[in-house]
Write a structure and sequence with these properties.
heterodimer; A: about 170 residues; B: about 300 residues; alpha+beta; Thrombin, subunit H; 2 domains; 6-stranded antiparallel β-barrel; 12 strands
């Protein structure tokens, strides 16, 4: 229950920050992808199911607010969360390289996916331009922001795990 | 809940693989349904309206308060020198003003004489604040803090200052989404003010960094249209009111077919520093089936 509440608060906070604060401090028109950071980080720490559910709901928020068709962002983020969750087995607390690599890979997939669905289908064929001017800068900025938010998410997760352990011990 | 009766292993859990499969089907069906209708928009909008929008409002208010303070501090010194400069200017302008007032008086009498319709100076307008910008990097849409409770409807035109910003593309109870004219999906039917030639203004992601939008299909056989000409929304647009300023032509060139021209327009609105917008609450009247029936019945009579 406590975990669910944390996810809920985090998802909405990250979503709101992404469109307000981080749009205000964006480079040019590029803002980082906070919801991806959230989905991938928790997916990595908790496993496939958490990843895909968080991805689904944060994507749904984006769908409702910014997309004309509900379902695309949720589908994309859900699969990326699932993908990140499948690395849960090789996840260690102190390791920062693995989450970074996964963030880079998933953000690039995210960018290419957005291009494919929303631009290629409308006949915008200049893929190199979009890749160099949208996907890559977004990826770089997202990695930079991950350095700030990942430790925070890690801390919260550790506190949650400790709390759960303590409560489990009480029953023994 | 006793831990003795309910062990952890006995709890029913759905494996991730199946959950993924189920949610994929949900997403795809949502996509299909929202592509065809807007059945889900209403309930979903109501849910987010009470959870997310108040939060956004709060954050947006804090953000603009901080920005205001910062601007104040930066500006005080500039203001002092500017003040002296402006005082001089006031004197000049007052003189000019009296002269212009006379001109205006003359103009209004002439207007009355010609019975000119001042339709687009009297659009009903309402102000709104931008509380959220597109969280992705692909489209230039934003959320404003007024919705159907304030009388906002789909396809209402949005302006800022004196230029066209875009139109309302989704309405929730207390928020609505504006798709701006620089967004990659938007096309506006425009008109060169000086020659009344029609053209199509389309936003493009590739041009956003340069601060321009592109136009195309301008037919101008006599080469009258040049750089710096004003472009406004045209009379034949089905969503936009006529006569709203879009921007100024910055580059114009012949298309390869030698019949039409295309080029770039600098928008009249500064989209990077947009905070408040005005919504025109009049909607361009659409021709409905009833109108056609009525016209037909009139014809028969």
């Amino acid at each position: 229950m406590r975990r669910f509440l944390i996810y809920f608060v985090f998802t909405i906070t990250f979503f709101v920050l992404q469109g307000t604060l981080f749009k205000a401090i964006s480079f040019g028109t590029i803002a980082p992808n906070l919801l991806l950071i959230l989905t991938v980080s928790f997916g990595l720490m908790r496993g496939k199911k958490t990843g895909l559910l968080l991805g689904f709901f944060s994507g749904l928020l984006m769908d409702i607010f910014v997309s004309d068709y509900v379902g695309f962002y949720s589908l994309l983020l859900m699969y990326l969360g699932y993908f990140a969750g499948s690395f849960n087995r090789v996840f260690f607390d102190e390791e920062i390289k693995l989450p970074m690599v996964i963030i880079i890979v998933t953000d690039l997939i995210y960018g290419v996916g957005c291009y494919g669905f929303m631009y290629l289908l409308r006949g915008r064929l200049n893929f190199p331009y979009y890749f160099l001017h949208i996907c890559l800068p977004e990826c770089a900025y997202t990695v930079l922001v991950t350095l700030i938010f990942y430790p925070l998410i890690l801390l919260i997760n550790r506190a949650l795990v400790n709390g759960e352990r303590k409560r489990a011990k009480k029953f023994v | 809940m006793s831990p003795v009766i309910k062990k952890k292993g006995e709890k029913f859990t759905l494996p991730g693989k199946y959950l993924l499969f189920i949610l994929t089907i949900v997403c795809v069906s949502l996509l299909v349904v929202t592509y065809a209708t807007d059945a889900f928009n209403r309930p979903l909008n109501y849910i987010v309206n009470y959870i997310v929008v108040p939060y956004e409002n709060g954050i947006a208010a804090i953000g603009s308060a901080i920005r205001d303070r910062k601007d104040e501090l930066v500006n005080i010194r500039d203001l002092m020198s500017e003040n002296a400069e402006l005082r001089n200017k006031i004197n000049e302008l007052e003189e000019e003003n009296t002269r212009l007032m006379q001109d205006k008086y003359e103009l209004s009498t002439l207007r009355n004489l010609m019975e000119l319709d001042e339709a687009y100076e009297s659009y009903e307008k309402t102000g709104a604040r931008i509380i959220y910008k597109d969280s992705g990097n692909w489209f230039s849409t934003f959320i404003i803090n007024k919705g159907s409770n304030d009388g906002i409807k789909l396809d209402m035109n949005v302006i800022a200052g004196n230029g066209l910003v875009g139109r309302i593309s989704m309405v929730g109870p207390d928020f609505s989404r504006v798709t701006s004219i620089i967004s990659d999906v938007s096309h506006v039917s425009g008109m060169v003010l000086s020659t009344s030639d029609n053209l199509i203004v389309s936003g493009s992601l590739e041009l956003i960094d340069e601060g321009v939008v592109s136009f195309s299909q301008l037919i101008d056989e006599e080469d009258k249209v040049g750089e710096g000409d004003k472009v406004v929304t045209s009379n034949i647009s089905d969503k936009f009111m006529p006569g709203l300023l879009i921007g100024y032509i910055s580059k114009i060139s012949n298309d390869t077919n030698n019949l039409t021209k295309s080029g770039y327009i600098i928008p009249a609105v500064d989209f990077k520093h947009l905070e408040e917008v005005l919504i025109i609450t009049d909607i361009k009247r659409q021709i409905t089936d009833e109108d056609i029936e009525e016209a037909e019945s009139n014809e028969i009579q």
